[in-house]
From TrEMBL:
GO terms for molecular function: metal ion binding; transferase activity. This is Glycosyl transferase. Keywords: Metal-binding, Transferase. It comes from Salmonella enterica. The keyword Metal-binding applies. The keyword Protein biosynthesis does not apply.
Length: 634
């Protein structure tokens, strides 16, 4: 009838541990050791309580939760009975948070009620029947007139088979008309059949009684959340659509970890205002506002700021550091000279002599491999014009950025991240205001190149990779992770290409989406629907408010697994996607992993190497163009 949002029953105690570590009533010099070891203390207390029960009274080792915590009190006499009572209350509260109505079980229950069947609920559990009723009610069940049996209260279990006999006697049940439904093969099916009871195995419900290999509390919680998503019962929360499922199982956990980390960082750094940068942060902005800090005084003032590399480079370039220039103009997309100069707001027709001087024939010419130094030379020759254009634009449009920051000292910029280019030019667009403010960037990841953009006034923090560390995760981002992440975050409002002055102030100008981008955005919307479904599923855990416990990088493991070892279903859903990485060129798109003709798969040669080097998603390319093209990846 109910399932948990955690993989193993004992993971509940890790959730309790994370809460106890923040509860003022529990933190003292005497109790730190209990907090650090609480899950094991709780498990061992239950073992001791069961052993003591059998030793003292014989019979079955069936106990109640109060007897478990009696053992805790014996081993830790410094705890007061009142404190132990609060811990018991916390355990029940945590059960309410992790439990949810199982879709298949609920359907069967409602059918039995509507058919006029007598329903009896039987549980091998240490919670008393009154608490079991409370938990079922909190999950949405109406059980006001339904008898509930707890093995802890009755001192007999389904595991021995004796609880069935007690129920038969108390409820006067006719064995011939009794149908017992349960998920434990031994206790619910085999033991019931021994007594002649008809059975139905609830194989739609799965769970695990193993032990985590992690030792940090938040990592145990992160692993538990991820692994739970693979269980049968969770499929009721997402659509039967590959992109929706990827959103739910891969990007949902990833964003839970990131936004939890973000929420904690905003608090630690005493941020006054958080600016979520269009377009990649639109979903992050929605998730933060809808699922974090609801009705809380700690909720930071937020604004969604329309900005892009293309629009920022026209306003925020105030200097010309040679080492940063290639970050601003680089990319795999092949563009002609006209489009390259347009990124900085220049009309190529006004710079024909410079174009000729560096060795290009005209503005329509597309530079080839080996001519990057000419492009760099041309851009550097044009720097006085670029800075002049920026000065002119800044005088007109910078108020859009200044207004967003006005009255706030500690500003946070939120985006998926990478090099910090937008943060760098955004800060410079503020003019003299910049020196009066602390600007922090909180990103999913930052790469080595971000070192070129940081300063004492311009700080950047990455959750998964920070300035390119750790290297293994950074390498995965650079082997397709960036492009797939940007697909997952894509927004259909159009990229910001500039700003316009109106009677009501400065407003952003957004480009119309091209035909190829519209199809791309439709696919992204399917994936994002899965992400939102995940947050609806995990919402009760978030509402507890202990964000540090939900910020484990373990929550990113399904994402990195997708990049490094995609399944066949994931390949089919994602490999044909296209990507546009350069500023101001959303209409020009390259496929993530190009599918080659059969002859190139069977006899990989020069063309295979060329396309592999050109592809964004390296492992995706290798797998989709494997020699054994008929093989499947799980």
């Amino acid at each position: 009838m109910v399932s948990r949002r955690i993989y193993r029953p004992r993971d509940l105690f890790s959730l309790m541990q994370s809460t106890l570590a923040t509860e003022k009533f529990f933190i003292s010099a005497y109790e730190i050791g209990i907090i650090d070891n609480f899950p094991e203390i709780r498990v061992q207390a239950e073992v001791s309580a069961r052993e003591n029960r059998v030793r003292r009274f014989g019979g079955e080792p069936e106990i109640l939760i109060s007897e478990i915590y009696d053992e805790v009190l014996k081993k830790h006499p410094q705890l007061s009975p009142a404190t132990v009572k609060k811990i018991i209350d916390l355990e029940i509260q945590m059960e309410k948070i992790v439990l949810y109505k199982n879709a298949r079980g609920s359907c069967l229950f409602e059918k039995a009620i509507s058919d006029g069947c007598k329903v009896i609920l039987i549980s091998d559990m240490y919670l008393p029947s009154a608490i079991l009723k409370e938990l079922l009610t909190s999950c949405g069940y109406d059980i006001s007139n339904i008898p509930v049996y707890s093995s802890g209260e009755e001192r007999y279990s389904k595991n021995s088979g004796k609880l069935f006999s007690i129920v038969k006697k108390n409820e006067n049940v006719d064995i011939a008309s009794w149908m017992h439904v349960g998920d434990n093969v031994h206790a619910d099916i085999l033991n019931a059949k021994k007594l002649g009871i008809n059975t139905l195995h609830a194989d739609w419900s799965e769970y695990n009684h193993g032990v985590s290999n992690h030792w940090k509390t938040k990592d145990i919680i992160g692993e538990s959340i991820c692994k739970t998503l693979l269980l049968k019962q969770v499929s009721a929360f997402h659509q039967n659509d590959p992109l929706n499922e990827i959103g739910f199982k891969v990007f949902g956990p990833l964003l839970l970890g990131y936004v939890s980390w973000l929420a904690n960082q905003l608090k630690i750094h005493k941020i006054d205002k958080a600016l979520f940068l269009a377009r990649d942060a639109h979903l992050i902005y929605k998730i933060y506002n809808e699922y974090f800090f609801q009705n809380s005084e700690e909720h930071v003032k937020c604004e969604y700021l329309y900005i892009s590399r293309a629009s920022a480079y026209m306003v925020g370039m105030t200097d010309w550091p040679m080492h940063r220039i290639w970050h601003l103009f680089g990319g795999k997309n092949k563009k002609n000279i006209k489009k390259i100069l347009a990124i900085a707001g220049l009309d190529a027709s006004e710079h024909i002599s410079d174009i000729h001087h560096v060795g290009f024939p005209d503005e329509e010419y597309i530079p080839v491999s080996g001519e990057e130094h000419k492009v760099h030379w041309l851009i550097n020759k044009s720097f006085p014009y670029i800075l002049l254009k920026n000065t002119q634009h800044r005088e007109v449009y910078a108020d859009y950025f200044k207004t967003a920051c006005e009255g706030y000292k500690n500003i946070a910029l939120i985006d998926v991240g990478w090099m910090g280019n937008i943060q760098s030019v955004f800060a410079r667009s503020l003019g003299a205001q910049w020196a009066e403010k602390q600007i922090h960037g909180f990103y999913l990841a930052t790469f080595v190149g971000a070192n070129d953009n940081r300063s004492i006034y311009n700080k950047m923090f990455g959750w998964l990779t920070n300035y390119g560390h750790p290297h293994d995760k950074c390498d995965l981002f650079l082997s397709g992770g960036v492009e797939i992440m940007e697909f997952a975050m894509a927004d259909n409002t159009g990229s910001t290409i500039g700003y316009k002055k109106t009677d009501n102030g400065i407003i952003p100008v957004r480009e119309d989406s091209s035909g190829s981008e519209i199809e791309y955005l439709k696919k992204a919307a399917r994936l994002q629907s899965g992400i939102i479904s995940f947050f609806e599923y995990v919402k009760p855990l978030i509402q507890k408010g202990n964000y540090a416990a939900l910020s484990s990088v373990v929550l990113s493991e399904p994402f990195f697994e997708l990049i490094a070892r995609p399944s066949s279903a994931q390949l089919d859903a994602l490999s044909s996607l296209t990507h546009s990485e350069s500023a101001g060129s959303n209409a020009e798109r390259i496929v993530l992993a190009k599918k080659l003709p059969l002859k190139d798969k069977l006899f990989p040669g020069e063309n295979y190497i060329k396309e592999l080097n050109a592809s964004y998603w390296k492992e995706g390319f290798k797998r989709i163009n494997r020699k054994k093209f008929w093989a499947k990846y799980n």
